Amino acid sequence: MPVESEYDVAIIGAGPGGYVCAIRAAQLGLSVALVERDAPGGVCLNIGCIPSKALIHHASLIAEGKRAIEAAGGKVDLSLFDYRKIWEASRAAADRLSKGVRFLLKKNKVAYIEGSGRLEGPRALHVEGKEGSLELRAKAIVLATGSRPRSLPGMAFDEESVLSSTGFLLSPSLPKRLAILGAGAIGMETAFVMSAFGVEVTVVELMDRILPLEDEESAALVASAFQKKGMALLTGRAAGGVSRGPSGLAIALKAKDGTESTIAADRLLVSVGRSPNTESLGLEEAGVRLERGYVIAGDYQESSVSGIYAIGDIVPSPQLAHVASKEGEIAAERIAQVLKGGPAPTERRVDSLFVPSAVYCEPELGSFGLSEAKAKEQGRPIGIARFPYAGVGKAVATEVPYGQAKIVFDPKLGNILGASIVGAGATELLHELLLAARSELLLEDVADMIHAHPTLSELVMEGARAGLGRAIHI
Amino acid sequence: MAERLLMMALSPTMSEGTIARWRVAEGQAFKAGALLCEVETDKASMDYEAPKDAVLLRIVLPEGGKAAVGDAIAIIGAAGEDPTPLLAPLATPKPASVSPNAAPAVSAPAQAKTAASVPPPSPPKSALEAAPEAALEAGPERPSASVFALSPGSGPSRPASYPPSSPLARSLARDLGVDLRAARGSGPGGRVVEKDVRALALASEEAGSGAPEVGKPAPDKRIPISGKRAVIARRLSESFYSAPHYYLKRRADAAALLALREASRSGRDKPISLNALLIKLSAEAIVRHPYVNSSWEGDSILERGSIDIGLAVALDDGLVTPVVRDCARKGAAAIEDELGALIAKAKGRGLAPPEYEGASFTISNLGGYGIEEFTAIINPPGSAILAAGAILDEPIVARDGSLSARKAMALTLGCDHRVIDGAAGSRFLATLVGFIEAPGSALL
User: 0.95 exceeded by the pTM?
Assistant: First the structure.
C-alpha cells in the first residue's frame, strides 16, 4: 500500500542542482522531499568533477614531484606504483563528499527518499524504491535528473574497452594505450591524467582544434603543452567505427579531405557530450514541453507546466555543475516566493555571459564571457589585453611560467567583457575578473587594486594594466 | 584626539555654506549620523550629519557665519579635551601655516577648497564627476561621507541626490550624456547598473522623439529630490505625524475687510493686501489669546513674547514661509511692505534662515486659486495655522425669508491639541472672525 505524504516541494535528482535546490528551499521554510535513485551528489560528486579532480591532483603531484626530485639529482623509483591506490583515493573523496551532502540534507530537514521518481500529473510523484513504492504530493516539483554520457552509433559503451567517463572513473586499472574521442573538457582532463600516469594517449576530435568551445588562442596554448608531453592530438577527424582484434581496438578515422587511417588502442573513451535524462519521467503525459530531449524552461526555471520547474543538465543551458546549482537556487527562491510570498529571486535566469568554464588539465584553462571570435562574429569593437605568466614573479619562482591571461574589454567604456586564462591556477584566478565584470567594474579598478606580491594574482592585475597600456613587467 | 570638523560640499556646485543653525551645543556629545547643524547653501538648506561619535568642543563658525568648503566649522573630540591648540592655527589665514601636529584632516582644507571651487563642467559631466566617490557607499540620504576623508584628490563627497552606481554605469552615462541622478538603481543595494543607464537613455531618446508610440504609455520620470523639497518633506511629515491636529471652521463676512483694503489705497501706490491685513488682525487676536502663540517643547510649552507670523508662499519648486516678526508692534502697512520684500526675495535669490524660520503662527491663503476652504498642516515650531479660502458671495436668508448676498470667507484653524484645546482654539477663532467682520474692534 503506497504511503502518501504532502510536501511544499518535491525534487527529483540529488545532484548539484537538486541538492542545492533542496537546501535552499528548506532554508526558506519550505518542506522538501528529495528523490534520488543513486547516491546524493549526483554525477558531479560521484562520477564526475570530484573523483576526476582527485585523480588530476595525484597526477600533478607525481609528475611534479618526479621532475623536482630528478632536477635536484635524485632518483624516483615508481616500480611499485599502483594506480588502484590513487583510484581508491578518488573514490574516498567522492564517498566523503557524498556523505557530506547527506549530512547537509539531514541538517536542513530535507526528506531524502531513495528511489526513481516519476511525475503523476503536475502535483504528484510516484517513487519506485528498493523497498516498495510510494506516492508524494507536492505544491511544486523540480526536475533535476541530470545527464549521462552520450554514446555514438557503433560505439556502445561496454565500460570494458569502450568507456564513458563513468566507466573510466570507476575503473581501477590503467590501459597501456588510451584513445579519447572528443577533445572537450572531459577528454582533455582524462588525457592529461592518463598521460601523467604513463599511458600512451591519442586524442581524436571532429573539429579543427581541441577545446572547440574555448578561445582559439587559449586552446592552442593547451594543445602545444599537451604535444610537448607526447600526446597525439588528431583534430579534424571523424571516428568511423571500432573493431576488436587480438591486439586491442582498431579505430577507423576519416579526415575531412577523405583520408582514412586507423589507430590502435587498448581502451577507447568516448567523451562527446552528455544526453539529458528526461525519459521515463512522465514528462509528456504531464504536458511538459521538450525539445530534442531537453526541457524548455522559462523565467525562474519554470517549465511549460506551471509549478513544474527544471534545472541543470536537462535544460539547454551550459551543462555545468555550478550552473545547475544556481538554477536550483533560483527555482527554490521562486517557489518560496510563490508559496510564501517571499522576495523574488534576484535573477530570473542564469546569465550565460557570467558563467565560468573550467578545464582542469595542465595547463588549466578558465574562461567566461565574450570571446574574441564571438565579438568579431558580432562585429563588435573590442580591446584585447594579454599578459604572460612569464612576467609574474611567483610563476617563475614556482616553475609555472607557461600560459597567459587574455582579457576582452570594451575599448570605449573600459569594462571587462570576457577573459580566458591558460596556466597554473587559471580556474581560480579567473574569478577576480568575473567578479569585476559582473559588478561592472572597469579595467582600472582591477589594475589599480594592490595585489600581494608575489602571487599568481598579479597576472590578473598586469593583464588589466596591459589593457590600459601600462603593464609594468613586460 | 580633538580634530577639526570641516565645511563639506553638500551639493555638486557648493563652494561655501552658511551655518543656519547649530543643533548641538558646545560640550554636548553626539552620535555618528546625528544632525550637527543645518547648512544653508546657494540653493537649499542641508543637514550636516556627524561623521562619528564625539563631543562638540568648540563652535568655530557661529550661526549665520559663512565658510568655504574645507574650512573648519568646529572642533570635535573626546569630552574634556582642550580645543585651543587646534584653534590657534585657524586664526592665521594661510592654510600653509597649519600646525603639523593637528588632526589628519587638517592638511586638507587648502586642496579641498581648490577642488570644490573649480567651476563645474557641463551638466551631464558634472553629475558624473561628483559621483565616483559615491559608488559603493550607503543609502542615498547620507551626504555626510566622512569629512575626515576630504583629502587631496578625494573631491567633494557625494551629495544626497546621487544614487550609488557601478563604474560601468558612470562610464556609460558619461558616454551617452545621461544624468545618473535620474536613473533608477536595480543593482545590489539599489546600485545603478549598466542596464538602468541604458533604460534611461532609451527613455529620454523616446521622450525626445515626440509623442510616445501608440499603445505605449509615456515612460516614468524619476525626479531627484532637491534640498528644499527634502526639507519640506521632513518638516511637514514631522509636524503631521507628531502634532495631533484638529480643525475648527468658521465663515466670516469679509465685506468690512474688503472695504478696509480699498480704504488703504489712500497715500499708497497700491492697497495693503488681504494677507497683510489677515496677518495684522491675527496678531491682534493672538494678543487677546497669547496661548495660540506657543510651541510644544516636550517637557514644557513655550509661550512666545514676539508674535512672528509666517505666510505660506508657493514657489516654482516648492514652498517657503517668509516670517514677519513681532507683528503686534507693527502696523498693517509696515507688515505689507516687509512681506512684499520677503516674497520678492524668496522668489529671487531665496531667503536666509532667519527670514523663514521660527514662525509662531502661520497663515496659508489659497483663495487666489479659487479654493473655497481647506485644511493646512501646522508649520512648526508654531502650534496653529490659519487656512483662508476664497472670498465668495453667499446667500443670506433674512428672518422675513428674503434673500440677500454677502461676501464670505471660510477660515479653517488647524491646531496642535497638545498646546491648544478645542475651546481655546474656538475662542481665538471667534475673536479673529470678529476682527475681520469689524476691523475697528481690533483697536479697542
Answer: no
